[in-house]
Specification:
Blueprint: H1 14-29, H2 36-49, H3 52-56, E1 58-60, H4 64-73, E2 78-80, H5 83-88, H6 91-95, E3 101-103, H7 108-117, H8 121-132, E4 137-140, H9 144-155, E5 163-166, H10 174-181, E6 188-191, H11 198-213, H12 219-223
Parallel strand pairs: 2-3, 2-4, 4-5, 5-6
Antiparallel strand pairs: 1-6
Amino acid sequence: MSQPLDFQPSTIAPMEIEEKSFEMIAQEFGEHEMSPTQFAVVQRIIHATADFDLGRSVVIHPKAIESGIAAIRAGRPIIADVQMVQVGISKPRLSQFGCEVHVHISDPDVAQEAKELGITRAIVSMRKAARQYRGGIYAIGNAPTALLELITLVKAGIVLPDLIIGVPVGFVSAAESKAELLKLDVPYITNHGRKGGSPVAVSAVNALSLLAKHGAVTEGERRV
């Protein structure tokens, strides 16, 4: 017969665990100058990563939350750089608004073109997405080359995203791609440094869809 653990969880109810987690995050994060909707995104990022340093490194464009919520409520597409981001995003909640999540990195034509050109599939997948979707939310959590290519496409006027969530992780070009994103005059959610990853991109999208579902009022709506 197995021995009981010395430690017992304070609760095993799923909703109570999440609520307690968010209370702990808010308490440990401390005072800040973010709006409630901005902090809702940062809080969910910390919840997904247990990384307060990463959370404090997040940079949110002044129009990012408003634009992201509006895009979801309008049923705009969400384009992910990799399947891991696509899988983690809450599709049932987004489907209420008519949003679909697309990822093209494993498409046969993308793989073939990348091989012929000697470039990453992530680059080609962004080019394909730009041909198919003029706007929408781009969620990039894995591939710095995807973010750099998307920035190039934005500068060329080929694509105009409603929001770019650019949080690729890694050592080669990850921090640099985010620094380039900060120079764009488009709504973005990003962070400084090498940290990031698919869970960060996923948590940002899911936070926005929750705000859209539960009736968060954007600054633009307040001005009307």
